[in-house]
Amino acid sequence: MNFLAHLLLSGSPADTPQYDDIVVGNFAAEAVRGRAGLLAYPEPVQRGIRLHRFIDSFTDTHPVVRRTTARLREAGLGKWAGVVADMGYDHLLARDFARHHPAEPLPDFAQRQYALLHARRHEIPERLQPLLHHMRHGDWLTGYAHPAGLEQALQGLSRRVPAGAIMATGAAAFLDELPAYEDDFAEFWPELRAGVMSSDK
């Protein structure tokens, strides 16, 4: 899953103890490697890092996600199929955010996340700092709700990642078979949420 899903699965300020720490850890985990990297953070932030790793592991090994990535590989995405699946699923989550998170509109949720992460940016690994800046100023989380936002995100990634040019076609591949991916996501998302709720990270 991509940024929106990770942040949403961090919990809520009202119901999750040390929520801010978990959000920071969940976001920072993109650039935290190994046990040494984990232990460099205080325990509450470690919980967010472990949550991020759990979400990634659960997603990467889930048969529904493997069905999605197999379809994207057949569409020509090759080794980048998993990245396109992650971002495509975030598109579907953002598009139907009111159904998945009725307590808060997506623009409000996004602005709250940006403010939290910006306030604690000194705790986020240096290599993620430019990404956080662009995410906040470009309002990526809200942009994911629109097909054009998905396309823009994948085109940007295709330019930044070595040998990733094929990802520029990822949005078209995902949207061309959208009903199939909608079915995949509708099956997978409740299982991911249940897995997060029942896990001991």
Verbal overview:
One of its GO terms (biological process) is fatty acid biosynthetic process. It comes from Hymenobacter lapidiphilus. Keywords: Hydrolase, Lipid biosynthesis, Lipid metabolism. One of its GO terms (molecular function) is [acyl-carrier-protein] phosphodiesterase activity. The protein has 201 residues and is mainly α. It has one domain (3-200). 72% of the residues lie in helices and 0% in strands. It has helices at 3-8, 19-28, 34-39, 43-61, 63-77, 81-95, 97-100, 106-119, 129-138, 140-143, 147-160, 170-176, 178-198. Helix 2 crosses helix 4 (43-61), helix 5 packs antiparallel against helix 13 (178-198) and helix 11 (147-160) packs antiparallel against helix 12 (170-176). The relative contact order is 0.16.
Task: Spell out the blueprint of helices and strands.
Elements lengths: L2 H6 L10 H10 L5 H6 L3 H19 L1 H15 L3 H15 L1 H4 L5 H14 L9 H10 L1 H4 L3 H14 L9 H7 L1 H21 L3
Count of helical regions: 13
Oligomer: single chain
Low-pLDDT stretches = none
One letter per element, helices H and strands E, the order comes to: HHHHHHHHHHHHH
**Share of helix, binned:** over 70%
Number of strands: 0
Q: Report the principal-axis shape.
A: globular
| Structural class designation | mainly alpha
- Determine the strand fraction and express it as a percent band: under 5%
Q: What can be said about the biggest beta sheet?
A: none
Query: What's the gyration radius in Å?
Result: 16 Å
| CA distance, first residue to last residue | 17 Å
Mean pLDDT across all residues, rounded? 94
Number of domains: 1
